[in-house]
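Quick one:
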Amino acid sequence: MIRAGAVVLAAGVWTRSIGHSLGLNLPIIPRKGHILVSARTHSIGNRKVMEFGYLMSKFGGQRSVDEDDEKYGVALVFEPTASQNILIGSSRQFVGMDTGVDQQVIRFIARRAIRFFPVLANVPLMRAYTGLRPWTPDHLPIVSAVDEVPGLFIASGHEGDGISLAAVTGKLVTEMVRGEPTCISVEPLRYDRFGEALNWYENEHELHGEGTG
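Output:
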């Protein structure tokens, strides 16, 4: 057994399962996304490009796109790498903990990418992979102390923004653990803020057959 004065629960899509063992009901759902990786190629672009529809898809906005793109949350993300590969995304699906690659979704992502960068039609794909984003009903992370479990802090639910929000999340958690005033208000990020959204989560949870343990 390891004893600590403070414990930070930052387990991504597994946060709810761990929280459940402590008597907490945290509405964090895995939301799968696909990424395509091109073979090495000459420079097509030297910076990351993301269509605005990526944010609309993330936050549940209605887009004027193909029915399949809307269904699978497909929106362009184009990111060159130092090794001259290109990362191409993305998609958003609620499929529980399934991390399998869906060939149909890959086709939809490729089609969307070619619309913005026609030259990609001649670039071979090397591989594709998926990941699970920790989603919350209001699209904000949970960064919070837990009243019922003194010394427990949660930092999870960032969905696709974990890297970009890492610095401020770390600062907030440090300030909370030390009992200091936080650099920004953490009230909107509390673990117990969801209210009626929690009922929606429970229904969605049953639809996907996810376990609670």
